[in-house]
Amino acid sequence: MSEDADVIVVGAGLAGLVATYELTRAGRRVVVVDQENEANLGGQAFWSLGGLFLVDSPEQRRMGIKDSAELALADWLGSAGFDREREDHWPRRWAEAYVAFAAGEKRDYLHGLGLRVMPTVGWAERGAGAAAGHGNSVPRFHLTWGTGPEVVRVFREPVLAAAARGLVTFRHRHRVDGLIVENGAAVGVRGTVLAPSEEARGVASGREAAGEFELRAQAVVVTSGGIGGNQELVRRNWPADRLGAAPRSMITGVPAYVDGRMLEITEDAGGSIVNRDRMWHYTEGIRNWDPVWPDHAIRIIPGPSSLWLDATGRRLPVPLFPGHDTLATLKHITATGHDYSWFVLTQDIVEKEFALSGSEQNPDITGKDLKLVLSRARKGAPGPVQAFLDKGEDFVVRRTLAELVDGMNAIAPGPKLDLAQVEREILARDREVDNPYSKDFQLMSVANARAYWPDKLTRVAKPHRLLDPAHGPLIAVRLHLLTRKTLGGLETTLNSQVVRPDGEPFDGLYAAGEVAGFGGGGVHGYNALEGTFLGGCIFSGRAAGRAIARRLG
User: Fold this and answer.
1) Superfamily of domain 5-225+487-552
2) Which ranges constitute the DSSP H helices of 197-306?
3) What is the DSSP letter of 43?
4) Which SUPFAM superfamilies match (predicted)?
5) What span, in angstroms and rounded, lies between the C-alpha atoms of 368 and 379?
């Protein structure tokens, strides 16, 4: 099969849509190749909460937040910890460029496409407690009005309009098995036509072959995503020296098609992969009671008040509090020899502080239903949270601590919890609540969060004793480790052009999104600041599309 096109885009996720959008703006003809069916257009981004990392935005200023490009870059570099002379060359340059984009034209670029954000700004990944270290110094998490599907929509619609004009052709159920390289340049792709699939978005599809294909063009853009759906590959690349032994059990935060195949295929063709040991996995995973893909995980996005216990019932050490330092917490949990942990909290905390990741878990914001959004202020847990309280296998709700620990032991895959040990941890914490000041660093963090008035009103519960029945019932949540983001990947220049192992650009070959570590082969370094997944896809996809359009003239 041949195709009359200027550019082939491998992957119909967000980065691929953005690159295609930019190419069609320049009048270029694009073929988009993807192994999944049309229902999956937009890829993993569709399932996201829609958070965007913006710096010194109007929304921040209205909240009284004093942010700047300088502060954001300091936070980014302090979190990234770039320390590899060869592999971090391009990632560092991408980091500087991305923060400038987030502090500059990013908001206007997206606003011009019709994207809007919520008026309040969230404070994600608050860090390890050092001014120069990991974490966001200020709230920067801007939630899209419409969540991930809306981010996808603002690029999908102009791409579909370009398809109607004959500029874009989609080749769904076409799995790329190799890149065609001639005279050192990428000139096309070859692969397998898969049997048609009628599966719904996100559902794992079959891999039965129905034919072969070959496509040629002047440039190829790889936008195939990361490795989070391929636990074998996650474990193969697991950084045991930093995070301890790979967990025996993980649940999966992305669809099965996030399989990492194109990384090896591109490397075999001559592309350079760097920082493949850098990855980002969450520690607050729960099994979805209504799963879409295999081992479907939902992440709790917690406020700061839940008491975090390891599998033996001991409190996690400072500063491993909910919402603070994801990878440090992951390292500690794996060091315990167990691959799960526990939240202990109250009904009042769950009602105010629990949010769930995923567009489908936030139907009010995803559906742009203002009335439903305002209903969150009423007494009671949000509907999706209540559904997990009622149906989730990881939730235990009881009136007394003894009953709670019995319920936890009934579902504990590891050691049985000792009631006296759990009670000691809770009583020690509860003794510190009676005064507005404390030696307990977690309660200090809660007070700090409540000093930010949007958090005080909507996100952080008033401190109270966990064992006070007036705030009950008591709730325990078994937390799994869940796979999510690939922080390393194909090495690329600031034009998203793939680099060869000798440092020279690979003629005709580009990469964007998670397959490129969201730019350069690892723009985040060792740590992510959150709200950067979608933005990284947008920034690197835009760079690829614009660079190819310039090159083709």
Assistant:
1) FAD/NAD(P)-binding domain (3.50.50.60)
2) 231-236, 240-243, 261-269
3) G
4) FAD/NAD(P)-binding domain
5) 21
